[in-house]
Design goal:
Blueprint (H helix, E strand, L loop, with lengths): L2 H24 L6 E4 L5 E8 L4 E6 L2 E5 L14 E2 L2 H6 L3 H11 L2 H15 L6 H17 L6 H10 L6 H29 L10 H18 L2 H7 L2 H4 L5 H16 L1 H28 L9 H16 L9 H9 L6 H19 L1 H8 L6 H7 L28
Antiparallel strand pairs: 1-2, 1-5, 2-3, 3-4
Length: 406
C-alpha cells in the first residue's frame, strides 16, 4: 500500500473517531435549559431564577413560572434542571478564566527549563531563551497543524538539530522529554488514586493506573538490565538492522540521561510542579463555568483532567477533539451538566491556545533558528557541564540569565 493511501486511510479513521466521539458527547446537550417536571415532562427555555418558583423565558416576551413542587428532583433531592450551552457561556466568570490564563502561562518557562536540563545530560548546550522559543513555537503548532500534540515535538526535534551537530541525540532528547512528562503525570495520578478512599469514584481507574505503572516499571527494569536485554533481543539481530548506528546512539542517550541522577530527579520534580499548575488552571476554568465541587474534590479533578491529557496525547483526532470530551463526560458527570462539561473542554483549549499565541510570532519570524555566531559555537563545541542548575540564573547562557510543559 502506498504511503499516501495509508495516510488517507489514517485521516479518515481519525475524522470518523472524532465525529463518533463528539456525537456521543452532544447527546443530552441542548442550546437552551430544560426544567424536568414531575410526571416526566419538561419545560425548555432560559432559566432566569431557580431560587423560588422557577422562572423560565420561553420566548422573548414570555416568561413562565413553575412552582417548586412541580419540578422533579434527583436522588439527592436537588432540582432536576439541565442547563444548556447558552446559560453555561452566559454565566461564565470572565475574571476566573483570566486567572486560569495567568496560572497556565508561566508553564512554558518551566517546560523550557526542564528541556534545557535534559539537553545538558547529553552534553548539548542550548541557551535558555532559545529553549523558550522552541517550546512556545512547538506549543502553538500543536493547534495550528493537523498532527495535534505530536506537531510540537516534531518541530522541536527538527529545529533543535540545527543547534548542534549531535542530531540523533537532540531528537532522542525531545522524545525523552515527552516520556518524562507522561511518566510523571501517570505516577502522580496513580499515587492520588492509591490513597483515595475505597468508596471514591477514583476507585474505578485505580486498577488500570496501577497496572500501567507496574508495566512501566517492569519495562524500565528490563531495558536497563543487560542480561535481560541480551536474552530478549540478541545483539546479533540488532546489528543486522540498517539503522544500527543510530539505534546505538539513541540507546546511549537514554542510558546517559538515566546516569545523571540530579538532572533526572530535577526534571521529574519540575514536571510535577508544572503539571500541578496546569491542572489548577483547568480546575479554575471549571469553576468559572459553575462546575460543582471545591478543594476537597480537587484530587478527583486532578485525576480526571490528567486522564484527559493522557487521552489527548494518544494518536487520533487533533488535540483529542471528541475523545477528550468523551472522557470528561464520563468522569465529570457528577460535577456539572453535559453543556458545562462541553464548555469546560473547549474553554481549556481556548486558554491553552491564548497562552501559545506568542509562538505564532516565533514561528513566523524564524527566531528559533540558531544565529550565525551560535552556529559557529555549537559545531564542534566542547561538551558542556552535565550538572543540573539549581536556579534559572545558572542557565547555559554565559552572557545573561533569563529568569522566567502532559
Amino acid at each position: 500500500m502506498a504511503p499516501r493511501t495509508r495516510q488517507r486511510i489514517f485521516n479518515v479513521l481519525r475524522i470518523t473517531l472524532c465525529a463518533a466521539a463528539l456525537w456521543i458527547v452532544v447527546q443530552g446537550v441542548t442550546l437552551n435549559d430544560r426544567v424536568h417536571l414531575v410526571g416526566g415532562g419538561e419545560q425548555a427555555g432560559i432559566v432566569l431564577d431557580d431560587s423560588g418558583p422557577i422562572r423560565v423565558r420561553v420566548a422573548p416576551e414570555e416568561v413562565v413560572a413553575i412552582p417548586l413542587e412541580d419540578v422533579a428532583r434527583d436522588e439527592q433531592g436537588d432540582l432536576r434542571i439541565t442547563y444548556g450551552l447558552r446559560t453555561a457561556v452566559r454565566d461564565m466568570n470572565g475574571w476566573l478564566f483570566l486567572l486560569a490564563v495567568g496560572i497556565y502561562f508561566p508553564i512554558i518557562f518551566l517546560q523550557a527549563w526542564r528541556f534545557q536540563w535534559v539537553l545538558r545530560a547529553q552534553d548539548i548546550g542550548l541557551r535558555y531563551w532559545q529553549a523558550v522559543k522552541l517550546s512556545i513555537a512547538g506549543n502553538f503548532l500543536n493547534f495550528a497543524t493537523p498532527l495535534g500534540s505530536n506537531a510540537g515535538d516534531v518541530f522541536k526535534a527538527y529545529f533543535l538539530s540545527l543547534h548542534t551537530d549531535r542530531k540523533t541525540e537532540a531528537v532522542t532528547t525531545v522524545f525523552l522529554d515527552r516520556v518524562i512528562g507522561l511518566a510523571t503525570l501517570l505516577s502522580v495520578v496513580a499515587v492520588i488514586t492509591l490513597v483515595s478512599p475505597s468508596d471514591s469514584r477514583l476507585a474505578i481507574v485505580r486498577p488500570y493506573l496501577l497496572f500501567a505503572v507496574g508495566l512501566g516499571i517492569v519495562l524500565i527494569f528490563a531495558y536497563f538490565s543487560p542480561p535481560l536485554r541480551r536474552w530478549v533481543v540478541p545483539r546479533r539481530w540488532i546489528q543486522r538492522l540498517p539503522a544500527y548506528d543510530h539505534l546505538q546512539r539513541i540507546d546511549r542517550s537514554a542510558h546517559k540521561l538515566a546516569g545523571h541522577k540530579p538532572i533526572l530527579i530535577g526534571a521529574v520534580v519540575l514536571t510535577a510542579i508544572l503539571q500541578a499548575m496546569a491542572v489548577t488552571a483547568y480546575f479554575t476554568v471549571a469553576k468559572s463555568l459553575g462546575m460543582r465541587g471545591g478543594l476537597p474534590e480537587f484530587p478527583e479533578y486532578y485525576t480526571y483532567f490528567s486522564t484527559g491529557v493522557l487521552v489527548q496525547s494518544l494518536p487520533g483526532p487533533p488535540q483529542g477533539l471528541g475523545t477528550v470530551e468523551l472522557t470528561f463526560k464520563f468522569f465529570l458527570a457528577p460535577f456539572g451538566s453535559p453543556a458545562q462539561i462541553v464548555c469546560v473542554a473547549f474553554a481549556i483549549r481556548l486558554m491553552v491556545l491564548l497562552c501559545a499565541l506568542p509562538g505564532l510570532f516565533v514561528a513566523l519570524t524564524g527566531s528559533y533558528r540558531p544565529s550565525q555566531a551560535e552556529g559557529d559555537n555549537t559545531q564542534g563545541a566542547p561538551a558542556t557541564t552535565a550538572a543540573a542548575p539549581t536556579s534559572p540564573a545558572q542557565s547555559s547562557n554565559p552572557e545573561s540569565a533569563v529568569v522566567a510543559r502532559g
